[in-house]
C-alpha cells in the first residue's frame, strides 16, 4: 500500500516559566494507506502533543519548532494553522477521536446538529441529505433507534455510546486517516474491547488508516500492524507487531512488555514494573533519556549522545547501544 502520511523530525515545545519543555523532540514515522499503527508510551511522553501537531492544534505557549508533516505530497506545516487548507484537512481528511468525548462534543447541541454540521460544512450536503447520512452513521456505529435519538443531547448517552458517536463523527467525511488518542481509557474493559472492534471494522469498511495512541501495549496488540514506542519525546523502537512482541530489542519496550499479563506465561509469573520515573522534559540530557532506568546500560551509554534510530532487521529499528538480544 502507498504511503499516506510521513512525519519527519517533528519538534514541538512549550515555553514555560520553568524552561523549555521539549514535548516532542524529533520524531519521524509514517503510515500507509489502510494501515493501522500504534503509538505507545508512558503518560507524558509526547503522544498527544505529536498528534495534535500533525493536526496543527498546538496553541501558545506551545509551538511546532521544526520538522515536516507530509500528507498527499504537501508539507502541512507550511500551511497556516487556521488557514483554509488546514480547515479543509482537519476533521475531514484527517480526523481525531479524543480520550474524553464530553470535551469534544458540544453539550448544548443535539447530536444531529453536531453530525450534520460536519457533513454540511465539508461535504456541502443539504439539510435532508445530511440528516439521513447522520442517522446512517449512528446506526452503523451501533446506536439503537438512531432515527429517534438523533435529536438527543450528549448527556443522554452513556460514555461508551458517546464514544461510538465520536467514531461516527470521525468517519462522517470519509477521512483518509483517523487518529484515536486513548479513545477507550475512561471506559470499562468490555466496552473498550467492543469499541476497538468497532473501530477496526469501520476503518476496514471505509478504507481508512488508523493511528491508535495508547499507553497500553495490550490494546494495540490485536489491531495494529506496526508499532512505534515513544519515550521522553522520542521514538525509541519501531517495528511490526511480530518484531515488537516477538523480539523486542529496546530496554524500554522489554520493560513495557514485562508489565502486561500474557496468556502464554506460566501461572504465577510476576509482572515487573519499570523502576523509576520518566525524565523531566526540561533540561533533557544529551545521553539516552532511559539510561537512569535501564538495566542493560553500558559504559558507553553515559558517555555518548543518544544514538539515532538504527535498523536492526528489515523494518525493525531501535535507538539503543546495548545488545539486549544477548541477554
Ligand atoms: N500546554 C502545555 N504547557 C506545558 N507543557 C505541556 C503542555 N501540554 C503538554 N505539555 C507537556 O508535554 C509533554 C507531553 O504531553 P502529552 O500530552 O503529549 O503526553 P501523552 O504522552 O499524551 O500523555 P498521556 O498518556 O498522559 O496522555 C508532557 O510532559 C506535558 O507536561
Ligand atoms: Mg495524551
- Overall 3D form: globular
Number of strands: 12
Count helical runs. 12
What percentage of residues falls in helices of 4 or more residues? 25-40%
Q: What is the radius of gyration?
A: 21 Å
- Structural class, by secondary structure, is alpha/beta
Q: Give the spatial strand order of the biggest sheet.
A: 6-7-8-3-9-10-12-11
The whole-number mean of residue pLDDT values reads 91
Give the distinct bound molecules. Answer: adenosine-5'-triphosphate, magnesium ion
Amount of beta strand: 15-25%
Describe the structure.
The chain is an alpha/beta fold and 327 residues long. The protein is globular and about 70 Å long. The longest helix is centred in the middle third of the chain and has 18 residues. Helix 4 crosses helix 5 and helix 7 runs parallel beside helix 8. The model has no long low-confidence stretch (mean pLDDT 91). It is built from twelve helices and twelve strands. 39% of the residues are buried. Adenosine-5'-triphosphate (ATP) binds next to strand 1, strand 2 and helix 1.
Question: Helix and strand layout, with pairings?
Answer:
Elements: E1 3-16, E2 19-32, E3 36-40, H1 47-54, E4 62-71, E5 74-75, H2 84-89, E6 94-97, H3 101-104, H4 111-123, H5 127-140, H6 146-149, H7 159-171, E7 177-181, H8 189-206, E8 209-214, H9 217-221, E9 226-231, E10 234-240, H10 241-246, H11 251-258, H12 299-303, E11 310-313, E12 316-318
Parallel strand pairs: 3-8, 3-9, 6-7, 7-8
Antiparallel strand pairs: 1-2, 1-4, 4-5, 9-10, 10-12, 11-12
Helix pairs in contact: 4-5, 5-7, 7-8
The chain binds adenosine-5'-triphosphate (ATP) and magnesium ion.
Amino acid at each position: 500500500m502507498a504511503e499516506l502520511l510521513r512525519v519527519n523530525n517533528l519538534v514541538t515545545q512549550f515555553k514555560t516559566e520553568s524552561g523549555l519543555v521539549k514535548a516532542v523532540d524529533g520524531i519521524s514515522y509514517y503510515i500507509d494507506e489502510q494501515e493501522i499503527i500504534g503509538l505507545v508510551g508512558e503518560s507524558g511522553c509526547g503522544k498527544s502533543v505529536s498528534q495534535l501537531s500533525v493536526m496543527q492544534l498546538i496553541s501558545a505557549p506551545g509551538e511546532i519548532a521544526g520538522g515536516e508533516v507530509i500528507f498527499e505530497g504537501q508539507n502541512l506545516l507550511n500551511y497556516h494553522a487556521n488557514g483554509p487548507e488546514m480547515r479543509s484537512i482537519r476533521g475531514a481528511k484527517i480526523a481525531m477521536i479524543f480520550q474524553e468525548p464530553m470535551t469534544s462534543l458540544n453539550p448544548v447541541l443535539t447530536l444531529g446538529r453536531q453530525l450534520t454540521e460536519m457533513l454540511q460544512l465539508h461535504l456541502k450536503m443539504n439539510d435532508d441529505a445530511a440528516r439521513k447520512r447522520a442517522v446512517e452513521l449512528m446506526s452503523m456505529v451501533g446506536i439503537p433507534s438512531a432515527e429517534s435519538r438523533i435529536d438527543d443531547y450528549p448527556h443522554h448517552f452513556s460514555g461508551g455510546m458517546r464514544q461510538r458517536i465520536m467514531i461516527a463523527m470521525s468517519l462522517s467525511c470519509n477521512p483518509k486517516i483517523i487518529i484515536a488518542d486513548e479513545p477507550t481509557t475512561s471506559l470499562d474493559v468490555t466496552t473498550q474491547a467492543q469499541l476497538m472492534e468497532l473501530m477496526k471494522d469501520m476503518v476496514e469498511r471505509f478504507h481508512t488508516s488508523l493511528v491508535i495512541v495508547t499507553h497500553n501495549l495490550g490494546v494495540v496488540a490485536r489491531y495494529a500492524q506496526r508499532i512505534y514506542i515513544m519515550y521522553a519525546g522520542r521514538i525509541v523502537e519501531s517495528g511490526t507487531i511480530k518484531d515488537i512482541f516477538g523480539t523486542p530489542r529496546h530496554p524500554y519496550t522489554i520493560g513495557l512488555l514485562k508489565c502486561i499479563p500474557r496468556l502464554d506465561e506460566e501461572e504465577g509469573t510476576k509482572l515487573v514494573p519499570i523502576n523509576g520515573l520518566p525524565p523531566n522534559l526540561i533540561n533533557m540530557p544529551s545521553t539516552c533519556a532511559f539510561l537512569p532506568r535501564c538495566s542493560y546500560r553500558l559504559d558507553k551509554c553515559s558517555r555518548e549522545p543518544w544514538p539515532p534510530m538504527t535498523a536492526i532487521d528489515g523494518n525493525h529499528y531501535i535507538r539503543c547501544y546495548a545488545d539486549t538480544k544477548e541477554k
